[in-house]
Amino acid sequence: VQRLKMKNNKLTGTIHQTSLVNMSNLEILNLEFNQLSVQVPSFIFNISSLKAIDLSSNNLLGSLPGDMCQHLPKLEELHLSLTELSGNIPLSIGKCNNLQILSLSIGNLTRLRHLYLGFNNLEGECNKLQVLNLAITQFSGLIPKSIFNSTMLEEIYLFDNNLEGQIPSSIFNISSLKTIDLSSNSLSDSLPNDMCQHLPKFEGLYLDTNELSSNIPSSISECYKFQNLDFAANQFSGLIPESVFNSTTLDEIDLCDNKLEGMFVTLIFSKLQKHYI
Hints:
InterPro entries: Leu-rich_rpt (IPR001611), Leu-rich_rpt_typical-subtyp (IPR003591), LRR_dom_sf (IPR032675). Helix content is 0%, strand content 22%.
């Protein structure tokens, strides 16, 4: 057996070691969306052939084993979201050298005090990183410029945090970007005038519920593939640039709760599915 998928089966009780330990060729184990209410079975992390483990959306208890990655040289995906796990993230997770996806969202890691991401080229070039999702994590302070060093980033999600200060201009130089969501923070200052000059693939920008001010740059029209634009609940002022409506792909725009001025005829909105001014 190479793949064992039993998701969404209302399984209850315990995961027995005898049922899996002899599956020496098992590569994919998917038990998500069940009703397992047990300690995390440590023996699962000893199946060296595993490439993907998904135990998310269960009632798993306890903490992750300290040596969880010591016997998983091939592990590429680890999904433990929506569980009742607590305690620390083991430092040994760095031994999962082939790990590509790590999902621990909405857990009870209440004892987490230090999150170390060192020795991962985050200060250099994280060449293969495509999606950065650190939303709803209670991060505070300035946005580190170094996390935008990847040349392949397509999606950035940092919404619902306590981030403040100016949006690093380097974020608008990542030509592969399609979506940026920095909404519901305390970001301030203005947007760079040339914000769309290096974003040929840009589709969605969500900056609502911040403290951004000054004018909306007219260069926003250079984001030719814009579909969604949300600047609501900020302190933008001045005229609404007509160029913002030049995009033939724009579906939704929200500029509510700002200090914007200007008059527009209905024709300007004729291409939009949704608009809020």
